[in-house]
Design brief:
The protein has a domain at 82-385 and 465-475: TIM Barrel. Helix content is 43%, strand content 14%. It has helices at 20-37, 44-52, 68-75, 124-136, 156-165, 179-193, 196-201, 219-230, 251-272, 306-313, 333-348, 367-383, 391-394, 396-402, 412-421, 439-453, 461-478; strands at residues 39-41, 56-58, 63-65, 82-84, 93-95, 101-104, 110-112, 119-121, 142-143, 171-174, 205-210, 216-217, 235-239, 242-243, 278-282, 285-287, 294-295, 319-321, 353-357, 359-360, 364-365. The chain has a five-stranded parallel β-sheet with strand order 9-10-11-13-15. The chain has a four-stranded mixed β-sheet with strand order 2-3-1-12. The protein has a four-stranded mixed β-sheet with strand order 8-7-21-20. The two termini are 42 Å apart.
Length: 480
Amino acid sequence: MKRQPLAPLRSDFALQMHSAEQLDKVVTASLDILERTGVRVLSHRVLALLSDHGAVVDRVRETAKLPHDLVVRALATAPRSFTFAARDMSCDLHLGDGCSYGTTDGGGTEVVDWTTGERRCSTKADVAAVTRMQDYLGSICFWWPTVGAGDRGETAQLHELDAGWNNTVKHLQGFVQGERQARYAVEMAAVIAGGRDALRARPVMSDLICTVSPLVLDRDGIEAALVFADAGVPVCFYSGPTLGTTAPATQAGAHAIALAEVIAGAVVLQLAYPGTPVLGTFAPMYADPRTGGAVTFPLDSRCQFLPTELVHHVGLPAMGSYGATDAVASDCWQSTMEELHSLGFAALDRAETFNAIGLSAWTLFNPEKLILDDELHHRIRFGLLDIAIDEREFALDVIDAVGPGGHYLAHHHTRSHMPAALVRGLAHELGPTGYYRQPVEVARERALAILEHYRPEPLPAASASELTRILAAADRELRV
């Protein structure tokens, strides 16, 4: 089996959502929040950094208020485009080239075992297996830990990186938190890149850092971000406020507070290491007042493209964070509807990266679900491409030759063009009886074939051995 070529989303059609004036209103509100309310920063190092650059810091309350001019000055040093390098240079992603590069959803905790059908907690071996599927599929342009290495304790995030680099040649975006953990991750990345200088020139990993709503930069997150920034590793700040619990119960308020958190993280990195590659993303969620549970896709979930517009408006590349689905079953109406909803907006908002597919109910991995979602990705991808409109494609000479009431099947033009006219999907696989097979059945068959037969290019033995050595040291230091 051969790896599919990368298949990012790219729209041939321009679409302007909000005006600059509308976006300015939200950005101004976010800047007002940072200046008037401030953020809580659970790191004395970062508080000192902010104080040195003119922030109003209260070390007792661990808060910092950021003046408008400080924020604007810091954000001006952030690059608008950069590269997610890969182990195989043909899989490099040039953020800012007009494409939206996708990955799976991440942080799952359970899998449906593809051998026994048992639903169980995920392990490092599962991370490795799912990574091979990610490496094969063209819809997945860079790696996220779709599921976690639940059997590896405090060093799970480092073991996930190890499983990633051993099973894909694509760029890795880790979920590493904590200063010491980040230092080990950078050491691992340098092995893959060929040294610290090579890592800075071609960052083969990036890292996702979550803020804590409302308005908190926690110690593990922001100090890990500083370690990555020092090494030239891109950082993506993610905020996930919930309306009515960790953010105002109004859309505008939730967007303003989430953007303020992302800006605060970006400002810290730019003050410490000007020019650090930073992305931003946020995804407001909803609290069901009857259950207390989180809802991602209520009937009215308008303006899901606004986070990307706002991140772009403050001068940063964006990750479109649309996520997976609230549905538990992988083949039900809710799952398909919510995934299509997500992927459609991911293509339209022109975020540089996005996460969208692969998990049910945010936590459960089922291999056929990833294949079903992969097809949805390609349906959206094709739906946003234009058709060729020119004399050759009109085929007016063919229309003249066949004439009114004629038939095109016997014409040589049909024989040369018809094979490419129909691109088959999961629903168009013929069975032995001549009828189309069930798509879920086909998806499961394809998923199992990838898991059983596909193997990416292995790491050089010396690199794999060095990763093992680094992990052993991390396990000794970090495991309680």
